[in-house]
Amino acid sequence: MTETEYHAHFLNGISTIPEDAFSEILKIAKLKDYKANTQIVKLNETPSKVYMLVSGIVRCYLSTESGKEFNKNFFLPISFFGSLTALLKKQPSLFVFEALSDCRVYEVHYDKLMLLSKKHKSVNMLYSKVLESVYVAYEKRLIELISLDATERYLEMRKQIAQIDDLIPQYHIASYLGITPVQLSRIRKKIDGC
Fold first, then answer.
1. Chain-centre distance of CA 163, in angstroms?
2. Which domain holds residue 109?
3. What is the 8-class DSSP label of residue 37?
4. Contact of 125 with 12, CB cutoff 8 Å
5. Starting at the edge strand that comes first in sequence, how are the strands of the sheet with 79-81 ordered?
6. What are the pLDDT digits (tens) for 68-116?
């Protein structure tokens, strides 16, 4: 199975996409490689694209005026990301999306995707299913923040991201959990008995 066939198979697992519609998606998509630490979407940049992560790890974070960063999310293959509110409102992004490792992504121009979704019901259904999955993940994260303590959130994160401690720097994990790296180190020692 080629890389493109694999991605078509993945998309068909979300919602059935006929071959002609998939061909049109490929025409508006560009496969692009990003080096680690590259900002894919920059702060205050008005974005025009949505992304499907094929390989690597991307983080989404908010940066304060003083330069402090708060990690909102991590994306692993295969997942979709983009600054949706900024895309919908055609305004600058409040979030930064940065490659934590070398990444390969499909970039899709959002407006062209919306035109394609009007033309093909299957593309519209795919878009709806992706939005549903994004909302479910957002709601799950909100519930975790409200109902779980830092240790429970970390354990949940370890379930979701295998070998997280090898893939993502400790200070990024701590930021995502809303704790300091020292607190995370204590939690890890307590859990792993190190």
1. 18
2. 3-120
3. T
4. no
5. 29-34, 103-109, 49-55, 79-81
6. 899 999 999 999 999 999 999 999 999 999 999 999 999 999 999 999 9
pLDDT digits (tens, 9 = 90+) for 123-147: 999 999 999 998 998 999 899 989 9
Q: What is the pLDDT of residue 62?
A: 94
In angstroms, how far is the first alpha carbon of the chain from the final one? 43
Domain presence at residue 9? yes
CATH label of the domain that carries residue 90: 2.60.120.10
Residue 149 within any structural domain of the chain: no
182 within domain boundaries: no
Q: How far apart are CA 6 and CA 94, in angstroms?
A: 33
Tell me the pTM. Answer: 0.89
Tally the domains of the chain: 1
The SS3 call for residue 83 is: coil
Residue 170 has, within 13 A of its CA and on its CB side, a CA count of 10
CA distances to 65, 87, 88, 90, 98 from 111, rounded to whole Å, are: 31, 9, 10, 11, 22
CB 150 within 8 A of CB 183: yes
C-alpha 126/C-alpha 8 separation (Å) is: 12
d(CA 2, CA 16): 19
